[in-house]
Amino acid sequence: MGITSAELHSKLKEFFGFDTFKGDQEKIITHLVNGNDAFVLMPTGGGKSLCYQLPALVMEGTAIVISPLIALMKNQVDAIRGFVSGNDGIAHFLNSSLSKAQITEVQEDLLSGATKLLYVAPESLTKAENVALLKEIRISFYAVDEAHCISEWGHDFRPEYRRIRALIDEIGKAPIIALTATATPKVRSDIQKNLGIADATVFKSSFNRPNLYYEIRDKVDPKRDIIKYIKQHPGESGIVYCLSRKKVTELAELFNINGIKALPYHAGLDAKTRAENQDRFLMEEIDVIVATIAFGMGIDKPDVRFVIHYDIPKSIESYYQETGRAGRDGRGGDCIAFYSYKDIQKLEKFMQGKPVAEQEIGKQLLLETVAYAESNQCRRKLLLNYFGEDYPEDNCGACDNCLHPKKKFDGREEMSLVIELIESMPEHFKTEHLANILAGETNAMIKSYRHDELEFFGAGKEHTVKFWCAVIHQGIVLHLLNKDIESYGLIDVTDKGRQFMEAPYELMLTEDRDFAEGEDDDDEAVPAKGGGGGDPVLLAMLKDLRSDMSKKLHLQPWILFGDASLEDMSITYPVTLEELKNCQGVGDGKARKFGKEFIELIGRYVEENEIERPDDFIVKSVVHKSANKVFIIQSIDRKLPFEDIASAIGKEMDELLDEIEGIVFSGTKLNIDYYIDQVVDEDVVDEIYSYFKEEAESDSLDAAMEALGPDYDESEVRLVRLKFICEVAN
Fold it and tell me: Helix %, strand %, coil % for the chain, to 5?
């Protein structure tokens, strides 16, 4: 059937209220209406759905839209019914959420020819009764939405999507339009091959979303950062993505306690709750939806102003797809992701035990994500390049790397040293082990392999273990090194790495992955675009007070309050001990012991300068202590051996010490003398204790190990540090 441009414009105005088409929409629609196959690559917010909705309304028969997003189906069906008033039968969806009566209604409308658009989940399409029903009706065309689900290389692979072509052949052939917002060249050819539309015309729009700002933040205190960010953007809609359902529920609860209207959304909730939560977000009864990355939300809301990733996604496609939900109305949107290499290691662990082919694909996709997160290049350039598109500008002006360039250094010597070390060893080891050798750090594993006797031991001791880990990560990203997930993350050298070794060339590396480094206190000018600095005048006054008090009390300044605590005070202006306890690193004991002078100084400063205190930034926590925490405190009160406590909670000794440090650093005072007396020599306790009292400039374990030298075991230092903090700081 042919249709003129004037007729299409008239229908566009009649049904959707628009005067003009966007981008390639008119070309795509004309192409499809004329009976041709099409492959549409269009970024989120580019107007993909119109490319099949309008043709469905003007062509004879019913268009079958195959979509994996049940939530989006309801959303789109409601929207179509809104465009064409008085005819609810014009659009339907067929999926597992319908009752028998609703299914009968859909069947009747289909057979009578009233329905122009039928949305089906791929699982529903495979049911014999549905195939039989669709054989009875005239089909105008098939639209395969979210077509990247077909490809194993796509970010959301669904095996049932690979059966679509066979089902189309069984039901009856008609033109096919495949649509996706994210597909690399590799994924694109996989989709076309699998759908049997190799000759389809490809319509590719630019992937650049100039209105979006991209930022990666160091995952140090993400909950606090996110709450602070949302409070700085009151009344704006946003989505926060997490990897686990448990974290989704926990964050939604935390947001509500802190006065942010939020609801959870994940596949573990029943369909009714999911639909209600989605509707409340669309109706703006709540500001924030917290969702799992794994579950496609399909929320078509134009004014989402921010998308925050609490956990980094498993692939660049997922990241692009999810960030694309921001700013669909063309106005600004902030895309902030929290990144920690530990999260990547967790994702790698999930892959172990999967089929090797699947592991290989997953590993490649993860590597791309690490490269993106750790890169110091323009993020927009990296993203577009990933999707096969060039971005000619050197500075996009709307990503953290362009606004706050990180320091770089020529790392050819450091990389050569790493490669020489790996090549000199008969066996392979993990990143941390190699970094310990180069930094000259001893531990039980280094000693057991006698690696403290290697010529390379301490060859890079002018740098920290963290520095060497960063060099090794960047070597993996640059394909000079390879990390074998199958063998638990052991590192070896690639052919490219050996070639580099023979003829080293300039290798610009980032100094480290401290994403907060180098951002000035004047970030407040653009609160959305970086960490919020505190009040520099107040901070200087607090440091002076700490210095005076430390001299009077004969204590190191950090014992009173660390820099992080003072910075928090300069942001939140606490004027009561209760408020002071909400600052980072300030527990009840510390607040009572040292806090009075600090809150008095802040109170005077606030009054003299007429400051409106942003109590927003005091993050209230959910009141349920972990069962482990309560058990550990009770067990220490009962003077149980640490070995027994660790065994009872199923933890290693190191992990138990981590838990105890968490309890003590948050301000709880414990008496662990009974255990220290049994396991650490009295003289050793005295020497470590006096180091923390007289020499230490912070509570850093690395600094303590360096200052105290190899005569002391790390676990001894950790135990005495706990004793010191309990007795002096808490």
Answer: 50, 10, 35
Q: At 339, list the tokens.
A: 């990144």
Residue 239 tokens, joined: 């989505």
User: Please, which residues have CB within 8 angstroms of residue 305's CB and are 6 or more apart in sequence?
Assistant: 233, 236, 237, 238, 326, 327, 331, 332, 333, 334
The residue range of the domain holding 243 is 212-403
Q: Note the maximum CA span of the chain.
A: 94
Are 655 and 558 members of one domain?
A: no
User: Is 522 within the bounds of a domain?
Assistant: no
User: Which of 379, 403, 427 is at the close of a domain?
Assistant: 403
Burial class (CB in 10 A: 0-12, 13-18, 19+), 96: exposed
Token duo for residue 238: 């946003």
Residues 394 and 456 in one domain: no
Same domain, 381 and 442: no
Q: Is residue 352 part of a domain?
A: yes
Q: Which of 18, 51, 268, 263 is nearest to 144 (CA)?
A: 51
Q: Are residues 161 and 260 in the same domain?
A: no
Give me the number of domains the chain comprises: 5
What pLDDT digit, counting tens, does each position of 301-349 carry?
Answer: 888 999 999 998 888 888 988 898 898 888 899 999 999 878 887 787 7
Beta-strand pair 508-510/408-410: antiparallel
DSSP 239: E
Q: Do 429 and 398 share a domain, yes or no? A: no
**C-beta contacts of 48-51 below 8 A and 24+ residues apart:** 48/145, 48/179, 48/181, 49/76, 49/145, 49/300, 50/16, 50/21, 50/22, 50/25, 51/25, 51/177, 51/179
DSSP states of 171-202 as a string?
Answer: H----EEEEES---HHHHHHHHHHHT-TTPEE
Is residue 500 scored above 90 in pLDDT? yes
- Answer whether residue 520 is part of any domain: no
CATH code where residue 643 lies:
1.10.10.1390
Q: Could you give the CA distance from residue 721 to residue 724 in angstroms, rounded to a whole number?
A: 5
Question: Are 280 and 377 part of one and the same domain?
Answer: yes
Neighbours of 41 (CB within 10 A): 26
Q: What is the pLDDT of residues 219-267, one digit of tens each?
A: 888 999 999 999 888 889 999 999 888 899 999 999 999 889 999 998 7
pLDDT of 525 reads: 29
524 domain residue, yes or no = no
